[in-house]
Amino acid sequence: MSYVVGAAAVTRFGFEWRGLGQFALNPGKANPRSLQLSTPTLERELGNTRAQRLMSRSAQLAAVAVHRVLQDAHWSERRGEIGYFLGVGASSGGMDQLLPVLRAAITEAGFSLDRLAVEGLSACNPLLTFQLLNNFTLCHGAILEGTGGPNGAFFSRGSGTVFALLEGMQALREGTCERVLVGGADCANHPVTLSELKREGFIEGGLVATEGAAILALTAGASEGLARVEHCALHSTRSQPWIKVIENALAALPFDSVDFLLLVPWGKARRRELSLALEQLSAQRTLDLSEIFGESLAAAPAVAWAVGLDLLLSKSARSVLILSAGIDGDLGVVALTSQAKS
Amino acid sequence: MTAAVITGVGVVSPFGFDAVAFFDALEQGRSAVGQIRSFDASRFPTRVAAEVPIQEIRSDWLISHLSPGSKAQSLVEELASDAVFRDRKVAFGLIAACEAWRSAGCGGREQEAWLSIALGLEQAFLQDFAPLLNQGEIDWSREESSDLPKVRFRSPLDGCSRALARLLELKGPVIVHASACAAGCLAVTHGASLIERGMTSIVLCGGADSMVNPLGIGGFSRLGAPSPRNEPDACRPFDRRRDGLAIGEGSAMFVLESEDRARARGARGVARVLGWGSTQDAYRATAPRPDGVAAQRAMERAIERADLPREAIGYINAHGTGTPLNDPAECRAIHGAFRKEVDNIQVSSIKGAVGHLMAASGAIELASCLLPFQRGLLPGTAHHQQPDPDCDVQVIGEKPIRASVDFILSNSFGFGGQNASVVLGRVQ
Hints:
Structural class of chain B: alpha/beta
Shape of chain A: globular
Oligomer: heterodimer
Helix content of chain B: 25-40%
Shape of chain B: globular
Strand content of chain A: 15-25%
Radius of gyration of chain B: 21 Å
Largest interface: A-B, 72 and 75 residues
Largest sheet of chain A: 10 strands, mixed
Distance between the termini of chain B: 19 Å
Radius of gyration of chain A: 20 Å
Strand content of chain B: 15-25%
Number of helices of chain B: 13
Helix content of chain A: 40-55%
Order of helices and strands of chain B: EHEEHHHEEEHEHEHEHEHEHEHHHEEEEE
Strand order of the largest sheet of chain B: 7-4-8-9-1-10-17-16-11-12-14
């Protein structure tokens, strides 16, 4: 069994995870179409300006989340033993870093390989590669905070983040580490990612691109933990229709009803499919977090876990089921239950 | 718990398009680093790489390298029309996976397999920005009216895994490992872990990557990682004259099964995946931890998990990049992990021969670890001629050596400090 002993969430609303559940219940007039964290706010929170120059936006979000979750869990000791598994998105190096290269390599006559080779590379930040490599979304935070345990970065178009949780739980189960961080970080509003989402029809289909990072701190045994990860599974939808997949996924749960069902779909099609669960599971209330918070891709399932955790801690619920589905065709199922004594 | 066994292997390497070409070249002690041919690199600071011997990925060529059938033909044609093969690693992954699938004798019953694959950074297509550039700024409103291919600006990171799941009609979940140079090793060990804990009984796993493209080569040049000499012996692992890596490309894929499943369907195992471990240097973005302590811990975990005494390991396939900082740090890690047994263990790196395949490096290096089991040879270290006192381990020279070993350790250390080690065992 895995217990949540701390959390962090960086969303367009700021750096606090406590209160996200309550916000989800009463989103008020928040407009998810226009919001992302302001860059100065993020950079101020991050502090280390030298390290910032090496980081993509996703890495910055993740680094803030790692710092905060370690504080939240009071894990200041023996950080070299802490494991860290993260769902990461597409490369999110700053376009401002790429522009000098493009300006040098592209002339009136078009793109020139020769100019890229000489003038373009001269204009290129030598450390650009560290912004581009996807695994650095995980690594920068690990380096800054000193987490040295088992680790892995999973590319996530929905399910990679759930794999991060599964692998973190497995590391605890096996005793490879006693403490582990799991979550996701991503920027759906990076211009190239946004262009891809448009071409794939997601924006037209109602997907609201945003950014975020969320990380949970887990241990194998914690009588005073914030919550328990009751269940975590990933179900392929390539061999069966969605209705059957949902049916099987719900049948595998250790309970028949939940207080809250949180849905994290990528766009309309997945929303329709996840909604099939409503017919099969008794839930007091259902929230579509992609509608409330926008879609932060690899971060979205982890942000939903943080929302669920807040609902448990604020005693709005004793059990929360989070269903996530990206475009990779797999269904993520995570159940959190309260640790509070009744 | 059930151990995982490799029952199928496929390799696309700078030596050719199947595992036999790869094993033959390693047996002959050849190296594939040479002038870059897939694009005009003549003005780039780095002009050599270990390239897969195909200049341009064409549909007819690719179809001829995949399993015959209308499925492959129609899929490849569709992907080609979307310009998916602008990213070379997609084709490499498909070819290697099909070979692994065939060599394991997989068919319809194996389509329940999970896919655990390491894929490298998205390939950037800088030329696609040309029609969008307006007075030095990107004008995204021009995108729609520009004549650009469907895959534009950059390839999708998971383009290969998506294509592969469709080509082989895989039914299980797809996991894409994005842990840079450690990813190939992690993808295979994750597959073994999934089998060991009973989540599935069969996984198609491995890695595919290519950084042999203008921004890939240029970005690494800017970083100062490749050898500045532009010679065929660019990468000289553990040699006192080493001055950087050689970039490579390719793919290695494996069919991994539970021993029970393999036995039941009469599939022949070629190696067992016995133990693994991963750690983080948590040191610097720009350099490995010099004392090698975190890498040492990854090796120790892998050996411990394999339930072996360290003296059981007969050969170490090192990460061995040929960079000034990596090799001595890895040797310190090996010393720390093996202590007084270090002099009894042969060590080599194949990166002098095939270059650094980045996300796929751990996978192709695992494939090279099958050479001892299949041909009784430990791979050599191409271009290793002058031992370095700072790399004080038993480095195998340029040619392979004949030896019988039962257990092998392979290391993969990623940019950013991710370390992964795996122990393979002979199938008795």
